[in-house]
Amino acid sequence: MNYTQLSLDQAPGIETPLRFFLTAPLFAIIAAILLIISGPELLQNRWLPETLALTHLLTLGFITMVMMGAVFQMLPVLIGSSIWAAGMSSRILHIFFSSGILFFTLGLSLSDSVIIKIAILFLLLSLLGFLSLVSVSLFKNKSTQATAIGMRIAVIGLWVSVFMGGFLAIGHGWDSVPLLRQFTKIHVAWAAIGWVSIMIVSIAYQVIPMFQVTNDYPLKIKKYFIPLLFSCLLLWSVVQYFEVALDAYFYELNSLLVIVPGSLLLAFVVFTIRLQIQRKKRLADASMYFWISGLSCLAISILVLIYSVVSDAQLSVLIGILFFTGFVFSVINAMLYKIVPFLVWLHLNKKIAFTDRGIADIPTMNEVISRKKMLYQYYLHILALVLSVLTFYLPSIFFYAMALAWLINWSLLFIHLLQAVKLYQDCLKPVQAT
Amino acid sequence: MCNEIVLDVHELQPPEPMEIAMKELTALSQGAYIKMIHRMQPFPLYDILLDNGFRYKVEDCEQGFNIYIWKAKDKVTNAYIKALISV
Q1: Which is more confidently placed, A286 or A433?
Q2: Maximum Cα–Cα distance for chain B, whole Å?
């Protein structure tokens, strides 16, 4: 088969993904400052306004912010599908989404219902806008490859999670609307599994073999894993909704619908780590360490979740720490350290390589953010993670050390990304001057 | 007969394949073409190629893909590659 001039001229400019990638660590830094100001009681009760602000600073401000940027960047590259007016729409979305998160944090911290209402409006507008744009792009695209199918399912996950979250938020903000807290579990599960995990798995199908030079995932895994996981999530949600009606059967069904998808995810982790161990080139970098640590934390969080369901132990905060900070933050960090240097290098090549300056002036990808810097931040990340787990058991001793470790960790991540952008600008300067 | 520069990058870890390709591309002369052997299609490279006056053709091979790259203005190489790939 011959392919001719398969053009991907639809990839967005460098500023589109970077504005999301650089904003994300800033929200994480605000989250760390909020931790320090609020103190250990923040982790005692998930319904405290500051706790809600903290979780959304991290899940929306950090995780979803990066994932939005990645979707804008990766849709054209991975599955050949572009987003309508990517430059302009990303700019508007970014402003609305960032403002929404800021207002949400401010409103909850000050218990100001007007600010909370404005925040809900901004958040819903930006999330629904993002979802509409991405859904059109993904469902118009006819690709049947596993990554495309997985991304479509992940986007459905975000739709459900945003609807549930929207209901909860409106219940919080408007007295006339009842606050249906029983939806929280479903909102969290769809965000964590339906959106974040399925999106990460879809991207992993492509980026693990691509960046780490491993063998490909077997076709059977790529074909069945995500649809199976999604079906379990759907069934689990139905069971939660009928909790009272199911009465005595609820416990068995609920346990089954946690153990089955949990085991599926465990199998995925084992398989991915096996691919990484068997890979042809064994040049491990910080990104690979982040991936392996993240996957290990996912495995541990699943085991703790299964244990908590079977034994009825209250471990949701520990599971949250392991899942979000251990798994999701690690994988996101891994991806940022691959994507940002690559984008800087790629766009410099586009602009400089064929001018009089040639490629001599362009740093290599490994020089954009040095291996050493990335490793330092990786160690800090692991330290913060260990301190987070210790804080779960001994909050009075480890809380402030944990908060400080995250603050330094995220500041360092931000500085590294900022330095990469600065390098990009500095390399372009002589060209602009002539 | 055109000068073939073979870049077998199919076992290399990113970013090496792209970096090697860029080095050769900036030095590519008339009457020469690059045959890149890669395990995947380097989509971002295609953007750079089209923006800077190159042409490329892709064919499947055992290791993944053979990507032939030459200068769009180089008519001799253009004809040569067309004959080569259609065989």
Answers
A1: A286
A2: 34
CB contact under 8 A, B15 and A213: no
User: In this predicted complex, what is the ipTM?
Assistant: 0.85
The tokens describing A190, both together, are 């769809």
By the 8 A CB rule, do A169 and A135 touch? no
Chain A residues within 8 A of B40 when measuring between CB atoms: 210
Q: Torsions phi, psi of A170, nearest 5?
A: -65, -35
Helix (H) or strand (E) holding B45, with range, is helix B43-51
**CA–CA separation, A18 and A266 (whole Å):** 32
Residue A407 pLDDT exceeds 90: yes
Please, are residues A74 and A203 in contact by the beta-carbon 8 Å criterion?
yes
Name residue B37's beta-bridge partners: B8, B66
Whole-Å CA distances, A333 to A187, A199, A375 = 24, 15, 11
Single-letter residue type at A27 = F
Amino acid residing at A261 = P
Q: What angle do CA A21, A25, A28 make, to 5 degrees?
A: 140
| H or E stretch covering A299 | helix A286-311
Model confidence, pTM: 0.91
B55/A5 Cβ within 8 A: yes
Q: Mention every residue, 6+ apart, whose C-beta is less than 8 A from residue A379.
A: none
With b meaning 16 or more CB within 10 Å and e meaning fewer, what string describes A285-299? bbbbbbbbbbbbbbb
Mean pLDDT value across residues A263-271: 96
